[in-house]
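Researcher: Batch entry, complex prediction.
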Amino acid sequence: MFSQACKYAIRAVLYLAVHASEGKKVGVKDIAAALDVPKYFLAKILQQLSRNNLISSTKGPSGGFFLSEKNREATLKDVVECIDGPDVFNSCILGLPICSSENPCPLHVQAFAYREGLHYQLKHQAIGDLAKRIEREEQKI
Amino acid sequence: MFSQACKYAIRAVLYLAVHASEGKKVGVKDIAAALDVPKYFLAKILQQLSRNNLISSTKGPSGGFFLSEKNREATLKDVVECIDGPDVFNSCILGLPICSSENPCPLHVQAFAYREGLHYQLKHQAIGDLAKRIEREEQKI
DNA sequence: TTAATAAGAGATTTTTTTGTCTTTTATTGT
DNA sequence: ACAATAAAAGACAAAAAAATCTCTTATTAA
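Model: Structure tokens for the complex:
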């Protein structure tokens, strides 16, 4: 479903949502260690998210990554599309270019129905709200 | 979700289910052309399916690939697991090793629903029956 | 029984993805 | 101003996935 880079991106964003803020920035090193993820690779991913204004960063001492209030209003759908491109939730599960609701492939109905469920959640839940649920339910990232 | 190889495998099996039989075998070349898929790559995939008795084949003139009646009783779940391995429907969408219903990752519930829905169909519908539906509804493969 | 045919098997190449390292730039506390 | 810090950027390497090519083996029809 998601590329490795995308999985790391989602986890990193959620980690920042829970553990960082304007006043408490976190460096790549710490995030990578906390998530047990390759440091340099994660750095690249964070750069890309930062360039697309999905996360915030500052250089220099006491710098690092965090989520602004604005960032918290974005959704994981934005994150996913930033890393894996805009077609993740639309492309045919069998890779057929002509597949659609009008012209469905043999797996279209089932694939579409259940993928939309995931898509819906990622699209309609702000990252900030998701973070609150994660803290409340003490979920692992 | 599925690797490229797996997508080709599913399509090839469905193609055989609809267009081939014991008495009407089809060669790689024809399948590749019909599905617009790389020939040599498809050949490798068909070999693997054949080794695992998910499709049948004979060499030599008038040889080729087809589905036996036995083959038609298998499911696409078998095909998928043959190519992409047994964890496709079980592994965490974020790649977390500890993720489960008891210890869910932040996306577990929706991701699980998505995959189980698809999994269920692939698991409980015989390839032979699926082929009949495809013919009835004139679906593209 | 031989030439033609088509899958099987193995090796290899290409492309994409993942992961690493080094240098540059911006920022901050002293 | 300056040394230290941390992200940004660019180049590079390794691994995995996708795709291609060649040779071998089995089968069949002439």
